[in-house]
Amino acid sequence: MSETPKFTVIDRRKMKAEEEQENPQPAAPAAEAPPPPPPEPGNGPAAGPRLVVSQPEAATDQPAQPELPPAPTAQESTEQKTAYDASAQRLEDLVRAQNPAVGPQPAVSFEHLVQQFYVSAMIQMGAGAQEGQRPRIDILGARQTIDLLGVLAEKTRGNLSDAEDRMLQTVLFETRMAFMELTSMITLQSIQPPAPPPPGKH
């Protein structure tokens, strides 16, 4: 006959009290009125946690502007310019070592900048196309390049030599004239009906 199993009664309330003393838990808030029932579908936004960020009222009326980094100090600009010149000189030495016939490159001037805009505008208006090929025209790009020339003339007014100002005004005049002639041709082609096909041979 097997022996009767022995049972030990453990007071778990005492163990729980000891655990709470070792790891105190924050007291539960006092019972309040039950929360309101969730809104029915279609009667408003669904209930749930929301992130509320306080913003000034003026910021909501205007589009957010990108925050620009602080401008470099005079010392930082000087150090960067020195490092840039040294890097450019190393590149020029490398090119001349591989091509001894190539002489030193001339320093970039205001004339180079204006010529770059002029060449870009004329190419965008179809200049430079090879003979027999249809020129590729970017009329909107040409307009933007010419407008950049206008901005350059406006921002440098009073700071240019007579020769620089005369060159800039001449380039502006020529590119604007070419633009007007090209847009006139485009307008006429869009208005005129297509030419009828030639009559067939009888």
Give the H and E element order: HHHHHH
Number of helices: 6
Q: Averaging pLDDT over every residue, what do you get? A: 79
What would you call the shape?
extended
Tally the beta strands. 0
Multimer state: single chain
The percent range for strand residues is under 5%
Distance from first to last alpha carbon: 129 Å
Rg, Cα atoms, Å: 40 Å
Detailed description of the structure:
The protein is mainly alpha-helical and 202 residues long. The protein has a domain at 109-128 and 135-191. 51% of the residues lie in helices and 0% in strands. The chain has six helices and no strands. The chain has helices spanning 12-22, 57-61, 74-98, 110-124, 139-155, 162-191. The radius of gyration is 40 Å and the shape is extended. It starts with 11 loop residues before the first helix and ends in an 11-residue tail after the last helix.
